[in-house]
Amino acid sequence: METAPRSNFIRDIIEADLAAGKHEHVITRFPPEPNGYLHIGHAKSICLNFGVAEDYGGRCNLRFDDTNPKREDPEYVNAIKHDVRWLGFDWGEHLYHASDYFSDLYAFGVELIKRGKGYVCSLSPEDIRKFRGTLTEPGTNSPYRDRSVEDNLDLFEKMKNGEFPEGTHVLRAKIDMASPNINMRDPVIFRILHAAHHRTGDQWCVYPTYDYAHCLSDALEGITHSLCSLEFEDHRPLYDWILDQLPVPCHPQQIEFARLNLNYTVMSKRKLSRLVSEGYVQSWDDPRMPTLSGLRRRGYSPRSIRQFCSMIGVAKSDNIVDMSMLEYCVRDDLNKKALRVMAVLNPVKLVITNYPEDGHEMLEAINNPEDSAMGTRMVPFCRELYIERDDFMEDPPKKFFRLAPGREVRLRYAYFVTCQEVVKDPQTNEIVEIRCTYDPATKGGDSPDGRKVKATLHWVSARHAAKAGVRLYDRLFLKPNPAEDEKKGIDFTEHINPDSLQVIDDCRIEPGLENPDPGTNYQFERLGYFCVDRDSTPGNPVFNRTVTLRDAWAKIKKQK
Ligand code: ATP
Ligand code: MG
């Protein structure tokens, strides 16, 4: 797959390990928490984890990190599975859950206590925080740190049996309250939660924390390389400490890489979930969302996303990737495969006065100039057409080369037409009709006498065209980094682009597109790539614009 080729520092480590005989097979995992939908940042992690496993003949497990029953939902579990498969990856039989290991994790907790490396702490959550110290000051030992093994075992069991309310006790690892690394200051490894879990129901009243569950789940699955994002670098000593204390089957190597950041959007699930719940977007799969489901609905192909992940590479330092790179990848992909059609988003009538009143003819149009195997189709042409309102100006400035009074232009695949007059609404003064004559000798769009025109316009036959709804999208945020002012108390939602969605109800498209299959990609000539939305109903197709044909933003930047 196209995720494969690039070398990176993680591949170097894996190759060295394999060459040294450290492992027979590479085993990685992708460990999402089912508390939201996957986004394009997750795609980077998926492509990396599944990609290296595939390339080195190993495997990648899909593991749900479901240790917090209060935030998790089976809806997310199903969506995540769907998205990973859609992206083109397969975990085969290797679907796991942290909750599969709750009994083992509890037993390991008991073992830590027995080895004098774990204790039940009965400080309040606020006191635990206070006793932890700061970046510059060491923490203070909990008064419960030296409880006897018997007392600890007894209390931990009672915690498990639901004998205590939430927040009264926790199990902590006994490491070092003076450690310069705050993660090592006796971290909490189990807390009491009286919440039903979507898989284990009411069986458990204690739940493990992420740091504790993650390394042990990795070890139980025989993971060789545990790839995670950079913010876990400071957690690595804890990852290693826990595995060093306990009789685990293996000790995976944690390796951190930089997460993907994209400008003009947000990527944390907490923020994405707010966009949905507070109604800034319609759903997790709103085409403006950077979620995989949103990108899919927008018209992105899995291939274009994998291509993007391969292009951005994997490195050890944080950076921000420009949205135009993602757009480049989808254009590149759709250019090769999308059927070209003509659609008019903002129609104005064009009447060809010297064309027979009731006549019509079928003209040949090319389906994809990039791929002759896609062939041609026949498009109806008649006396009354629609063209884009923007393609006509009554009093054009110097650089406007499209249709204007007295000027000749080409209608794509059809004829040369010359504008003779315009008809206006007497009340509003709006142009309601552009009246032209055509030159029958220019059929197909070529002039026999070598006459040149400066513009080619798309059009549809007024009599034959179908109606369609179109949704045009712009960036969801006005600022490259919408979260940058959060420390100053300015919420990221304040930078939302109020014009990120434009709905046009009354577009006209070539006949034959009345009932397209949702998810199908088209290029509307001159307008961009469009994808059929799932809101389409028979006779009322709705199209989402995936992306414009060129990078309009780059052009604007250049002009400035
Ligand atoms: P978020 O902050 O969006 O909630 P998360 O890390 O909490 O992300 P998880 O479901 O825990 O989300 O992530 C699963 C895996 O995906 C983790 O290994 C995580 O490192 C990786 N991941 C998440 N976001 C990104 C990103 N932006 N770039 C690369 N990898 C990511
Ligand atoms: Mg997480």
Structural description of this entry:
The strands form seven sheets. This protein has a seven-stranded mixed beta sheet, with helices on one face. A seven-stranded mixed beta sheet has the order 21-18-19-20-14-17-22, with no helix packed on it. A hairpin with a 3-residue loop joins strand 25 (521-524) and strand 26. The protein folds into three domains: 22-257, Rossmann fold; 269-339 and 468-559, Ribosomal Protein L25, Chain P (Beta Barrel), CATH 2.40.240.10; 343-458, Ribosomal Protein L25, Chain P, CATH 2.40.240.10. It has 13 helices and 27 strands. The protein is elongated and about 100 Å long. It is α/β, with parallel strands linked by helices. Helix 2 (40-55) packs across helix 11, helix 7 packs across helix 8 and helix 11 (302-312) crosses helix 12 (323-337). The chain is 26% helix and 24% strand. The model is unreliable at 553-560 (pLDDT under 50). The protein starts with 8 loop residues before the first helix and ends with a helix. Residues 31-33, 41-42, 44-45, 65, 228-229, 259-260, 267-269 line the site of adenosine-5'-triphosphate.
- Tally of alpha and pi helices: 13
Average pLDDT reading:
95
**What's the architecture of the largest domain, going by CATH?**
3-Layer(aba) Sandwich
Q: What is the CATH first-level class name of the largest domain?
A: Alpha Beta
Question: Strand order across the biggest sheet?
Answer: 12-25-26-27-23-24-13
Stretches where pLDDT is under 50 for at least 5 consecutive residues are 553-560
Hetero groups: adenosine-5'-triphosphate, magnesium ion
Percent in strands: 15-25%
Q: Give the overall form.
A: elongated
Fourth-tier CATH superfamily name of the largest domain: HUPs
Q: Strand tally, please?
A: 27
Instruction: Provide the number of structural domains.
Output: 3
Quaternary structure of the protein: single chain
Q: Termini distance?
A: 40 Å
Sheet with most strands: 7 strands, mixed
CATH level-3 fold name of the largest domain: Rossmann fold
| Helix/sheet category | alpha/beta
Proportion of residues in helical segments: 25-40%
